[in-house]
Description:
single chain, mainly alpha, 2 domains, two-stranded antiparallel ribbon, about 5% strand, globular
Amino acid sequence: MHYDEAEQKIIFYTVSTEEMLEVRAKEFEGAFTTIAELKKVEPQEAELKFGSMALSIIDHFSSIKTGIRDYTAISKAAHEKYVSEIEVGASSGNHEDEYHLFMEYHSRAMQEYLIEHLEKAEALLKSSAVGGYEPAIELLASNWALMKSAALRRIERAKKA
């Protein structure tokens, strides 16, 4: 899906699963919903949920907003709800929620330039890995050292600016 801001068009491109794997390998986890989540509700509600999500993503990453709704506010509220839900799960020992909360704190560290967020992220990642959550184990073993180093450099640069 591509939003052509100049033409004010949303264009859908069909890409094979194999070609999309290349894109997904280069990007950090995309926004998603599961088919199971969409099947929990009536078809019309699922379509509304999916459409709202797609338009929200378009507005989030574009300079020229669609103007259909204030998707920024809707997205912010949904994100706050999501974070509160994974905080509850993480505090009760859910290792998948710990991993997702790790991603939240890593993102905050990169955006807000706070070492405390990075430290919290690392603690959550390690706890998730110790708890046996496979994506956490893999990330800790492969890319975490580089991610942490990059975040530390970014935080240091921000302090000097």
